[in-house]
Automatic annotation (TrEMBL), chain A:
Record-given protein name: Peptide ABC transporter permease
Entry's family note: Belongs to the binding-protein-dependent transport system permease family.
Transmembrane segment boundaries: 55-77, 89-122, 134-153, 188-214, 234-260
Record keywords, A-Z: Cell membrane, Membrane, Transmembrane, Transmembrane helix, Transport
Chief location of this protein within or outside the cell: membrane
Species, as recorded: Streptomyces fuscichromogenes
TrEMBL record, chain B:
The keyword Transmembrane helix appears for this protein: yes
Organismal lineage: Bacteria, Bacillati, Actinomycetota, Actinomycetes, Kitasatosporales
Source species: Streptomyces fuscichromogenes
Domain ABC transmembrane type-1: 94-283
Keyword field contains S-adenosyl-L-methionine: no
Protein name: Peptide ABC transporter ATP-binding protein
UniProt subcellular location: Cell membrane; Membrane
Amino acid sequence: MEARRAALGLNDPIWSQYVHYLKNLLAGDFGESITRPGLSVSQIIGQRLPATIELAGLAFVIAMLVSIPLGVLMAALTRGGRRQRTELAFTSSSIVFAAIPEFILAVGLVCLFGQGVGLLGIFPVAGRSGPLSLVLPVISLAVAPTVVLARVVRVEVLTVMEADYIRTARSKRLRAWRLYLRHALPNAVTATLTLSGLLLGGLIAGTVLVESVMAWPGLGSSMVSSILTKDYPLVQGIVLVYGVVVLVINLVVDVVLAVLDPRSAIQES
Amino acid sequence: MTARTSSSAPDPSTPSPARRLLAGLAKTIRTPMGATATVFLGVVLLAAIVAPMLWSGTAAKVDATALDQGPSGEHWLGTDNLGRDLLLRVLVAARLSVLLSLSATAIGISLGLLLGAAPWLLGPRLGRLAAAFVNIAVAFPMLLMTLFFAVIFGVGVQGSVCAIGISMAPWFARLTQTLIAGVQKRDFVAAARIARVSRFGVLRRHILPNIAEPLIVNVALAAAAALLAFAGLSFLGLGVQAPEYDWGLLLNEGLSGIYVNPAGALGPGIAIVVAGLGFNLFGEALAKVLGSRHKVRTFRPRGASRTVSGSGGHPRQHATDGSAGDAIAPAGEVPVLEVDRLRVSLDTPNGTVSPVREISFSMKRGEALGVVGESGSGKSLTALAVAQLLESPLHVEAATLRLLGKDLMAADPRSRATRRFLATSLGLVFQNPTTSFNPTMRIGPQLAEVARLHQDMSRRQAGARAVDRLRAVRIPGAERRAKQYPHEFSGGMRQRAMVGMAMMGNPSLIIADEPTTALDVTIQRQVLNLLEQIRVENQVAVLLISHDISVIGQFCSRVLVMYAGRVVEELPSADLRTSARHPYTRALLSAVPDMTADRSQPLATVPGRPVDPADRPAGCAFAPRCTFATAQCHTAEPPLQEVGSGGTVACWNPQEGAVTAVQGQVQQAGRGQA
Ligand code: SF4
């Protein structure tokens, strides 16, 4: 034990441990797991990260694919105070769904598909075994971002529909879908994208919980178990990866926004 | 979570913030959403207070004879692996769950307020540092931050409370910063600073009370977030540790026994959702109530007012048949536009209001007709009504509305044929070229849209046509310009491009609604000359809407003068100076020094205020501002009648003689506005 402590450098003063750690970090070395000796932190992360990316990425794509058309559709249906009941149903159900945290939804789905009559065994409720096993964790993760984003898209589109250029577009007597998709939506995209960046960050955090509920072999379940077993090198490594991922997402959103906004495009001269 | 900053801070002149807040709370509870939230929160708080007093012993009692049971009459949610009643445990756990999340919220808010007020308290340099720090921290999802701090502070209740509190702080700090930035430029803050009240004093006495409202809304939302985060931590085994238990821990235990008793997982899950929803809904409802106090959202047509009184009972005056255009349009030729008794109405809770009524006129090929009036006179609504661009809740009625002989009132506006007809025979030029182009589309494609969709041109043909139109409106380098975005154009060029867009489909009529108002004088002239040239060369009729009677006088052959939604005078523009009869027309004219005068001077205005279409006086609408008003004017509305010189006028006391500019008044007005 003492020898192992020495080998890990745990007897050195804190600051020198820290400097050592940072040095190794820069070299791409996160150190070695305590609970799983022989495996380096980088190796474990390398094994686990793809599963998490798969989960978060798919959930995000689905959230975008559902929420944007849904938001535009709701805007078109409820514009100018029409269909007040539809609007009320949409708004209140979106508030309710947004308030259900992903891990509780996951537990509910596990109950339903693990125990429910007639639903048993349609989708696996635990583990990562083929595409079907993705269904439940992805649903758990995607529902809240979808409704939040759909609400924002609706509000943004409705705001844009009041703009002068929409009146110009209407004077060209376009079909409604062209008005909404070609003229309104691109102008509502800034707020949508900004929020979707935030939601993607939140989604990644959500994977930690959902992975634990559904025994998904990703980074999150690995982090939780390593916190509980006090495997600090592993915890540090994983936290760092999460941090970098979130920063990268923010950066990407900024870049995409800059590219999409013609006002920032380089002028031809 | 998304911060709610929509409700702006209240004015210091209004009643005390505390009282406003109480009133807001009372109102919130009465909204459907607020009531639901109150019920949810009430149940949760009741359980939190009462359940531990009644059942904490029973809930902890181990019963070896009833291990891992499903729901039964005795144990509604079943029992856990020690035979303890799960329903009672869920109820008892309410206290710890709520208390812990409220403590975390309190920590988060205090830290957040401090951090958020730091830029204000520490001055600009250190403040910028704090702001930068907050900006970075805010980018990280709260749950991730919580896990991070949970690692640092260690597993357990204290660690989790601190972790959640701290990870919530940046979010609150950002909110506080935004709110403070909103109020600190206000007069009362500046005044307090000048009076040398300390920064802290200003913060406590002047700023905080004014940002309290939105902050409190967000406290409810933050409490919901904290509750969910705590449940998450405990669920992962990082928060509350046995033998203590909260909902998250119960959920964890329930999940491991889910195949024995699903209710054991569903029970705490539902409790978490109900509590979370309670806080969330309450926050949303409160935000709605407090937010809506500042901006009452009612529909307002330009110049219409919020309060609407009944408009029934006005005598309906029909224009004498044939008065308007028929006499001018030569027999045999189909007029480009025929309008008879056009009315635009709006249904309000207090009855129907008609901001435009009894408009009749007609236009022949290549004619330039002007509509002049102050803002709120209904001239733009008339233009949009003719163009079939008004949307509900506004609706249009007319005895006749024909474009090139086609009855627009009978046509289905959504049919392909009607859309095609309107898009190609009617061109529109709007007031503000800066906002009237779609900023996310290149100019060329914006022009080409009509040709592609309604003239069956290929993308390439339509593009070529767009370039051709841009050339026609004298945009240099049209080919290159077509590939640019609107923001790369100058204001005048944009308006010329707009005219080019109106010309895409070889229209017979162009409606130009204040096309030059947003432009400076030289550009105004360019655009008017361009319209004039198009009118003459292509025999396009132009309906020009303007508040500037001198623009109308120069450009148009005939003038309709509108006041309070109806035509009060119509006459050839050549006769404006010599034979305008209506006192309003004459007032408009006398406000312009000379037809050829420099229009860079601000326009003088007609004394008095325009009338509110929802609150039109009985009799002549102009009577309150009219120097010639007689008793009759206040009781009966004058009908539009023909007068000798080929015009019509709606006035009981039409005036005679040439109109001269009131020089003094103009100069005064000019100086006043400079
Ligand atoms: S009707 Fe009477 S109040 Fe109205 S414009 Fe004529 S004179 Fe003035």
